[in-house]
């Protein structure tokens, strides 16, 4: 029973971490593009 619970907690934590990383990468990409355009002009 506890092994199943641990499995689910681990899986949820991993999904949350992946989602947070994806959002962070998205905003970082946005800022990189913004500074890149600023440099080009």
Characterize the structure shown:
- The chain is 95% helix and 0% strand.
- The chain has 41 residues and is mainly α.
- The protein has one helix at residues 2-40.
Assign a percent range to the helix content: over 70%
Largest sheet: none
How many separate helices? 1
Number of strands: 0
State the order of secondary-structure elements, H for helix, E for strand. Answer: H
What is the distance, rounded to the nearest whole angstrom, between the alpha carbons of the first and last residues? 60 Å
* SS strand fraction: under 5%
Mean pLDDT: 87
Estimated radius of gyration: 18 Å
Stretches where pLDDT is under 50 for at least 5 consecutive residues are: none
Taken from the alpha-carbon principal axes, the silhouette is rod-shaped
| Coarse structural class | mainly alpha
């Amino acid at each position: 029973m506890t092994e199943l619970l641990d499995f689910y907690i681990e899986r949820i934590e991993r999904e949350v971490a992946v989602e947070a990383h994806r959002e962070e990468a998205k905003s970082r990409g946005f800022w990189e593009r913004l500074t890149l355009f600023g440099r080009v002009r």
